[in-house]
């Protein structure tokens, strides 16, 4: 079983000619087959964590490690991270002009599987996955993220997730901006992938509502650049009832 290990991760971002430390010692282990939710207030550094693992050039790792089965993820190119089995869906996905969804998916699958999927079975795979997500078949011919609505972007992320079957998936605010139906479909996709037992998911979110549809095995509270509490699904219920205040006021929370 593949294991993603984040150890004492410190990350700074350059802004206005100065460097500001955003992540202040993140520790987390995610294994294939597990679903982890990271929940925390806006501005606490959740997206910074996702971008840092993805290798976004804006974020400088000042200390700490990220490994996948002992391999140094931070030393890998973005392509190598994907080939190693990491899937990173960003809060603000980029447009890829001139590349259709269907070509993009096949290229990604080829990179990850090490060989191009047979066209016939591939077309069927994509069709089935799209039907399951209640996506219009015409969507496959559109350019990646070009003019996608919020809901289409998120469905596209889940489509990738289902077709590419990564070892570790990081989903940043996959629930934001979705109406109830889209939220349910996206959640069902995450649950199907979880049920396969092959994918470890790190679900990053500000809102507790997605956790009505997805039951994480572990819930972590993220505040001020680090994980300040961890528990089971009951921790999400507590957050829904009480909010983040306990974790954000005053001096840094220990533990
Ligand atoms: P969250 O996802 O929890 O809302 P972020 O990781 O987006 O938090 O942001 C954490 C902090 O880092 C914020 O103060 C934000 O302004 C700052 N930050 C994040 N990314 C950048 C960036 N690219 N440039 C400048 N500041 C940034
Ligand atoms: Mg934010
Ligand atoms: Mg964010």
**C-alpha end-to-end distance:** 28 Å
- Which bin fits the share of residues in helices? 25-40%
- Shape descriptor reads globular
Q: What do we call the CATH topology of the domain at 3-96 and 167-248?
A: Rossmann fold
Indicate the mean pLDDT.
90
Spatial order of strands in the largest sheet: 6-9-10-3-11-12
Reading off the top of the CATH hierarchy, the class of the domain at 3-96 and 167-248 is best stated as Alpha Beta
CATH 2nd-level architecture of the domain at 3-96 and 167-248: 3-Layer(aba) Sandwich
**In what range is the share of β-strand residues?**
25-35%
Ligand roster: adenosine-5'-diphosphate, magnesium ion
Radius of gyration: 18 Å
Tell me the number of strands. Answer: 12
Total helix count?
8
| Name of the CATH homologous superfamily of the domain at 3-96 and 167-248 | P-loop containing nucleotide triphosphate hydrolases
Helix/strand/pairing class, anyone? alpha/beta
Instruction: Give the helices and strands as they follow along the chain.
Output: EEEHEEHEEHHEHEHEEEHH
Largest sheet: 6 strands, mixed
Spans of at least 5 consecutive residues whose pLDDT stays below 50 are none
Q: What's this model, at a glance?
A:
Helix content is 34%, strand content 31%. It is an alpha/beta fold.
Kindly describe this structure.
With 255 residues, this protein is α/β, with parallel strands linked by helices. The mean pLDDT is 90. It has a domain at 3-96 and 167-248: P-loop containing nucleotide triphosphate hydrolases (Rossmann fold), CATH 3.40.50.300. The strands form three sheets. Strands 6-9-10-3-11-12 form a six-stranded mixed β-sheet, with helices on both faces. A four-stranded antiparallel β-sheet has the order 2-1-4-5. It has helices spanning 46-54, 78-84, 101-113, 119-132, 150-164, 180-195, 234-242, 245-248, and strands at 3-15, 18-31, 35-39, 59-68, 71-72, 86-89, 96-100, 143-144, 168-172, 200-205, 218-223, 226-231. The chain has eight helices and twelve strands.
